[in-house]
Every structure is written in C-alpha cells, then in structure tokens.
Amino acid sequence: MKNEMKLEFLSISENESLARVAVASFISQMNPTMEELTDIKTVVSEAVTNAIIHGYEDKNEEKITLTCKMENEQIEIIIEDKGIGIDNIEVAREPLYTSKPEWERSGMGFTIMENFMDKVDITSKPGEGTMIRMMKQLTSTRALCN
Ligand SMILES: Nc1ncnc2c1ncn2[C@@H]1O[C@H](COP(=O)(O)OP(=O)(O)OP(=O)(O)O)[C@@H](O)[C@H]1O
Ligand SMILES: [Mg+2]
C-alpha cells in the first residue's frame, strides 16, 4: 500500500496531540502492533515539542509541517519548522544534552527518536529552521495482512 499526507499547524502545545493522533490514524491502515503505534506516537510528540519549544521558543503563531508517507511496510515521518535552527547537530543528538536545562528538559528527545525509529536524519541551519526525517519498517507479517 502507498499513501501520503501533509498537515500544517500552528506551534501551540495543543497541537502535539493533534499531530500524534493524525499520525496514529494514518498508520493504522498498516496494521501496526501496539508497540509500533506507541513508539511512533512518542517520536512525533518529541519532534513536535522540539519544534515548538526550541525551534520557535514558544512563540505561538509559527507554522509546523508534518508529512507522513507509507510504502509497503515502510513509514517516513518528516517534521519541519522555520525556527532558530540547530548550531551543532552532533552535540544536540547526544543523550542528556539540552540547551534548556533551566526549563527542566532532560535532553532525551533525540535519543528516544533514535531508539524507537530505524533512522533519524536531522537537517538544520541556524536562522532558517530544522527538518527531522524519521524512517521505520513495520514488522512485515502484520503489514502483509492488510
Ligand atoms: N526543532 C528544533 N529547533 C532548534 N533546536 C532544536 C530543535 N530540536 C532540538 N533542538 C536542540 O537540540 C537539543 C536536544 O533536543 P532533545 O529533544 O534531545 O532534548 P530537549 O528537548 O532539550 O529535552 P527533552 O526532549 O528530553 O525534553 C535541544 O535542547 C535544542 O537545543
Ligand atoms: Mg526534546
């Protein structure tokens, strides 16, 4: 099965659950396991939260784009913001690194994304924004039942 969807929403925290539910509903066509579904909802939350609080530094009226593609058992999720961007991507990916310790962030968002997904690409330019592209192959036996 091949399918694709794109969603654009404002950078307000209420939209984290919108993004999670939209992706969960989209991928449920592929018969994911409960664990796959929970993992994917979690990584979408992490990436959207990052766009809101880091990319746009909690300014509420900026746009976030979520693109979701599926082909056979492969899922691709892209989350983009046009916010402040990331200076040093390698440092940002490190477990426990956070630029906002005063906000009680734990610096585990990217580590969670990497653990739950097969591949996480980060493209970012200071002053221009950030794009997170995540891929995951669902377990083929269940996906083939579709
Ligand atoms: N969309 C983004 N725009 C700008 N900077 C970002 C973005 N996403 C992540 N970062 C930077 O990368 C760092 C690491 O992100 P990560 O999600 O791993 O940790 P965190 O958000 O700081 O903490 P946690 O996710 O555990 O609450 C952030 O502290 C921030 O500096
Ligand atoms: Mg985070």
From TrEMBL:
<keyword id="KW-0723">Serine/threonine-protein kinase</keyword>
<dbReference type="Pfam" id="PF13581">
    <property type="entry name" value="HATPase_c_2"/>
</dbReference>
<dbReference type="InterPro" id="IPR050267">
    <property type="entry name" value="Anti-sigma-factor_SerPK"/>
</dbReference>
<dbReference type="GO" id="GO:0004674">
    <property type="term" value="F:protein serine/threonine kinase activity"/>
</dbReference>
<keyword id="KW-0547">Nucleotide-binding</keyword>
<protein>
    <recommendedName>
        <fullName>Anti-sigma F factor</fullName>
        <ecNumber>2.7.11.1</ecNumber>
    </recommendedName>
</protein>
<keyword id="KW-0749">Sporulation</keyword>
<keyword id="KW-0067">ATP-binding</keyword>
<dbReference type="InterPro" id="IPR003594">
    <property type="entry name" value="HATPase_dom"/>
</dbReference>
<comment type="function">
    <text>Binds to sigma F and blocks its ability to form an RNA polymerase holoenzyme (E-sigma F). Phosphorylates SpoIIAA on a serine residue. This phosphorylation may enable SpoIIAA to act as an anti-anti-sigma factor that counteracts SpoIIAB and thus releases sigma F from inhibition.</text>
</comment>
<comment type="similarity">
    <text>Belongs to the anti-sigma-factor family.</text>
</comment>
<feature type="domain" description="Histidine kinase/HSP90-like ATPase">
    <location>
        <begin position="35"/>
        <end position="140"/>
    </location>
</feature>
<keyword id="KW-0418">Kinase</keyword>
<keyword id="KW-0808">Transferase</keyword>
<dbReference type="InterPro" id="IPR036890">
    <property type="entry name" value="HATPase_C_sf"/>
</dbReference>
<dbReference type="InterPro" id="IPR010194">
    <property type="entry name" value="Anti-sigma_F"/>
</dbReference>
